[in-house]
Structure formats: structure tokens, C-alpha cells
Amino acid sequence: MSPHDRAWVATRKGLFELRRRAGAWQIENLSFVADPVTMLLPPDACGHMLAGLNLGHFGAKLQASDDAGKTWKEVSAPSFPPQPADAEGPAWKLDHVFSLERSGDAIWCGTVPGGLFVSRDKGETWTLDEALWNDPRRLQWMGGGNPAPALHSICPHPLNADELLVGVSCGGAWRTTDGGQSWGLRARGMRADFMPPELAGDENSQDPHLIARCRDVPDVLWCQHHCGIFRSRDNGATWEELKARPSSFGFAVAAHPGDPQTAWFVPAVKDERRIPVDGALCVTRTRDGGRSFDVLREGLPQQHCYDLIFRHGLAVDDEGAQLLMGSTTGGLWASGDAGDSWQCVSAHLPPVYAVKFG
Amino acid sequence: MALIEFTPQLRRFVDTPRVQTPAATLKQGLDAAFAINPRLRGYILDDQGHLRPNVVVFIDGRRARDLRALTDPLGPESRVHVLQALSGG
């Protein structure tokens, strides 16, 4: 089975495994039924995968599988060290797992309240990246839709396992080139309308909703930001703003793995009105680096649709042809032609938190 | 010996021992349970060792008051119930 014939949908009521057979996606398995799954790491070549759960009363947990999701065992969730009595900022307590990515032999985990953890034993144990956590600039971060800052994007560099670019709402974009021992801001050019005018360009105050890297041209990064769409051609050193219709507001972005000119977004009206424009769901796609955008509607609901696509709710496969998109109200759509047309996989899943191929 | 019991809601996720312990405080009593199943700790306490906000502990019919250091005393005949704290509808 190729990686683009299997996908995973993390929802408020469990983790769904999907398979594509004869061109159609179907649900094949459900793990953690009735429990919220906030993020997952798809299986590696050995079948090892992770799922982050949020059990509410009983806290955030991490589950691991060695057989691609057939069976699971609980492993230690990332945990913050003792909080000094005089520590400012949010409590040093894991709220939930918000991002998971592999880079080389390491697995990185982003969390609410903004902590980044690394595991070098396949998720059995986790260490807080203290260089980022102890950076005094972290205390300026704000929650953006979460109770505390959220480290939602982890973009490994395909040519250097020690290099990551991470995105934080609201705390800008940061890069390490030494495996997390040192960090620098990487958000110049982004614009934060929600800040006082003199701070609109402050790199540490930006709200990138999601950042995605082009796998084959890794200097190209795309960002769906709270205040618009941005693209970098220099590995995050500078960002330029792009304009899309019907709206540049949204949460999700998917970067074509091979073509640095192509990316997909899912627009909503604006920040204080988080619904599709005119109640009609569409995906926008640029194939020219952001100079123009196609508005793709075929197969998507066009009347009285109030589905919102969360930041991890849109995914593209490793060939750039298959797309999956899951919504806050449990809609799941698939495209096999790079977004030109869509098919409804299900209209009544639980609220979708994350979609991943692999 | 104080007796410590956990809500059956937890059994879906983790083994919950029923513990008889000479502990003199709630913290000592919970630690006795966590010694039997270390995984249980993270379901009851957060990263800082505080009682999770939506977990409630009753000691002899009264809610435990020290939710951070867990210093509420236990007597030799105390019954401790660790439960879900319900909130809203």
C-alpha cells in the first residue's frame, strides 16, 4: 500500500483510519472511540505511530502503536518540569498535544501552552526544548483561540535533521539549525493587524495559523496567517503577503510537496465571522507562487454551509494530487485531482481536528 | 488504615488499585496508589503535582481543600474517593 492510499482523521470522538480503494476513500478502522484525538503522527516504515488524546478531566495523553494503529499502548505524554515560584506566563502544564513531526531520528511535539518537546526514543520519553521555553521573548506570546499560546506548526528541513521552523499562535515563527539548542525569530514581513500599530510588524507577536514547507524546494514556506496569506522564498528570513479571493482569512494551508509555486487554502469570511464566504465552501489554490488563485468549488456544498476547516484539517499527499479536508461540523471531502473537484467522504463525522496522509 | 478508591470511569483508561494505606495525608495516600500503578498519577495530578481541575477528592464525605500540596489529613479509618468533578449540563 502506498502512503497516499491511507489517511488518518483525528476527531473529537476518535481516530479514523481511511483507505482509498478503486479511487474512493472509505473508513476502515476507528481507534479511541468517543475520546478526543487532537493530533497524530502517521506510521513510519515500521508501522510506528503516535496519537495525542485529550481526556478532559484526566488530562492530555499520548498513545503509541507499533502496528500502524491496530493496537495501542499508552506512553508518557510530554510533561513540563517543576515551575519556579516566580515564573511568569502560562502555567507549566500540558493542555494538549497540538503538533507532531519526525525529523531524522527525532520526533518533535508542539503543545498548548507553547512548549516544544523532543523524543529520541520513538516517543517513549520526552524532553522540553528549554532553549525556546526559557527564551524571555516567550513571555510576550499570547493565546490565539486557545487558553495559552499554541505551538501548532513544525516544519523539518528535509536536508538537515537538526533544522526546524516552528509556528506559534501568537508568537511568530522560529528557527533552529542546531537541533533546538538555539532559536531565532523568523517572521519578518508578517503583519499583525490585531496589535497596536507600532507593533504590527513585531515578529514575536505574529499569529501564523499554520506554516507549511515545500518538501522539494525547502526554502519555500507558506503561511496562512490571522491577517492574510504569506509566502517565503528564503527559508523564512522574509515573508511577502499574498492576496486571495474570496478571502485571505483562514486557518489551513497545504504546500505542494514538489512544486514550490502551488499551495492550497480554505478561506473563511474573517476572524470575527468564521464561516465560509456566503455559506459556500471553497478551496483556493495558487499555481504561480501566489500571483493568482483558483477558486475550487466543484463537489463542495454551496448553500447554507457553515463548515470551518481548522488549521490541521487540510492535507495533501506526497505526490501533490490527493487532498483531504475535514471540518468543524464533521464534513470530510477528498479530491483526487489536486482540488479541481471534490467528493464527500462523510457528512457526519465528529468535529475534525487533523487530517494526515501516510 | 485509610482506604482510597478511584472512580470506575478511569478503568477504561488505566488500572485503578483500591488501596489501604497508613498514610497521614492525602498526598501520601495518593502516592501509595501511584506506587502500585505509576501511570495513574498523570490522570489525577497535572505536571506540577496539583490535583487536576476537574478531579475532586472526598475524604470522609468532605471535599479535600488543599488542591496543590494535598496536605489534607487522613485518619486511620478514613475513606477517600477520587472522582470526576462534574461541571455544567
Overview of the structural elements:
- The complex is a heterodimer of chains A (358) and B (89).
- Chain A is mostly beta strands.
- Chain A is 1% helix and 41% strand.
- Chain A is built from one helix and 28 strands.
- Chain B is 17% helix and 24% strand.
- Chain B contains two helices and five strands; from the N terminus they run ββααβββ.
- Chain B has helices at 26-36, 41-44, and strands at residues 2-6, 19-21, 55-59, 62-63, 79-84.
- The longest helix of chain B is centred in the middle third of the chain and has 11 residues, at 26-36.
| Number of helical stretches of at least 4 residues of chain B | 2
The major pleated sheet of chain A works out as:
4 strands, antiparallel
Low-confidence stretches of chain B: none
Under CATH, the homologous superfamily of chain B reads: Beta-grasp domain
Helix content of chain B: 10-25%
- Calculate the mean pLDDT score of chain B and round it: 96
Strand order of the largest sheet of chain B: 2-1-5-3-4
Tags for this model:
heterodimer, A: 358 residues, mainly beta, four-stranded antiparallel beta sheet, 28 strands, B: 89 residues, alpha+beta, Ubiquitin-like (UB roll), 2 helices, 5 strands, globular
Compile the SSE list and pairings.
The complex is a heterodimer of chains A (about 350) and B (about 90).
Chain A: E1 6-11, E2 14-21, E3 24-31, E4 37-41, E5 49-54, E6 60-65, E7 73-75, E8 96-103, E9 106-112, E10 116-119, E11 127-128, H1 130-133, E12 150-157, E13 160-169, E14 172-176, E15 184-185, E16 208-213, E17 221-225, E18 228-232, E19 240-242, E20 249-255, E21 263-268, E22 283-286, E23 294-296, E24 314-316, E25 323-326, E26 332-335, E27 343-346, E28 352-357
Antiparallel strand pairs in A: 1-2, 1-28, 2-3, 4-5, 5-6, 6-7, 8-9, 9-10, 10-11, 12-13, 13-14, 14-15, 16-17, 17-18, 18-19, 20-21, 21-22, 22-23, 24-25, 25-26, 26-27
Chain B: E1 2-6, E2 19-21, H1 26-36, H2 41-44, E3 55-59, E4 62-63, E5 79-84
